Amino acid sequence: MTDRRVTPDPTHVTLDIPAQVTGPIADLRQSPAGPRDRQVLFGDRAAILGRMEGHSLIRAQKDGYCGWVSDAALGPVHPVTHRVTSRATHVYAEANFKSPDLMHLGFSAGLNVVAETATFVETPQGFIPRQHVRPTEARATDPATIAELFLGVPYLWGGNAHLGIDCSGLVQAACLACGIACPGDSDQQAEQLGVALPSGAALQRNDVIFWKGHVALVLDKDTLIHANAGHMLVTTEPIADALARIEMQGDGVPTGFKRLEMPT
């Protein structure tokens, strides 16, 4: 059986048109009126594979994930020169924080910066504080630090953004920011991320713990960070407590421990 997340129904694949997300956040759905699988963010590039009922079937460039997005959320492709590196930011009408805010954007939103001032960058959408953006080539180097940006963000099934995120969305955001290729869902991540650790190996920062249907990132030998439905937010938790709580609630013991391979 094919995986619809990466191999959509071929009867719906009739196009191959480059596109880009033009809204702050867009749901990536199983069908035009179906439930959310994941989310794509402002500036994310995609290929439109087909159209139906005011929606487009897309393949997201960042991870190959396929799903249906509202046509209103897509537009033509423009350069992405910078990305938002704060948890969230505002787009202002002028290079002045007292001017009207026109749009909110979250971490990793892709921007086309056309000019800069001492305190703002200018994009076709408006002005964004310079402190909140970095050039696309300026990768982060520590996934755990990126994950900590999301502390307190509400849990949202299929979420990938500062307004709501799930366990695999958090790990993906942390990895992609550091140049580590990372698929969208935890089962895919368990297969494709990092190198498996032997049983009983000591854990270190940026190791990844997998359960069936869940994933967490290690902050230190005693602590992890994860978006979880137990707390309904992104939180840190002692590893021993998380293992006991998750097993007690019926979700079993970890299915694997892996060590991320950092790009050189």
TrEMBL record:
Cross-referenced Pfam families: NLPC_P60, SH3_16
BP term (GO), one: proteolysis
NlpC/P60 domain segment(s): 137-261
Keywords linked to the UniProt accession: Hydrolase, Protease, Thiol protease
Gene Ontology molecular-function annotations: cysteine-type peptidase activity
Similarity remark: Belongs to the peptidase C40 family.
PANTHER family linked to this entry: NLP_P60 DOMAIN-CONTAINING PROTEIN-RELATED, PEPTIDOGLYCAN DL-ENDOPEPTIDASE CWLO
Protein name: NlpC/P60 domain protein
